[in-house]
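Page 47, continued from p. 46.
Same chain as before, 152 aa.
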Amino acid sequence: MIDGVLIRPLLWHSDQRGSLAELVRADDPELMSVPFGQVYVTTLYPGVVKGWHLHREQWDRMACLRGRVLLGLVDSRPDSPTCGEQMRIVLGDRNFVLVRVPAGVWHGLKNIAGEEAMVVNVVSHPFNAADPDEVRVAPHGVLDFDWERHDG
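Result:
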């Protein structure tokens, strides 16, 4: 486990009309330990990797609402007790969870299903196009992380 990462199951409340799941509540001390900045949705086509990037200040809180994605995390924070650790978390239709990603942790997503995936992200800071709070590197060959399927 990477220090500061929180994985929270999403509890779906379903009836004959449909279903509802709460993502983030203002009265949740763990999820609101960092401020609210904005909410956005991103999609990924099958097989696509969106990554790698990290934020200097922003924390992410993300969940896959449609499809299935692999969230890859790499802790490169020199002052972190888990510096050098990696995590692989499947998000989506068979594992509805919300994942909090701390600032300074590299992260990326790969669509591992056969349909377009949709991920919602509740971030701690609004995006600033004039001064983006992110560092980006190529999805393959830069960080020591294997996006391929791991059979076991």
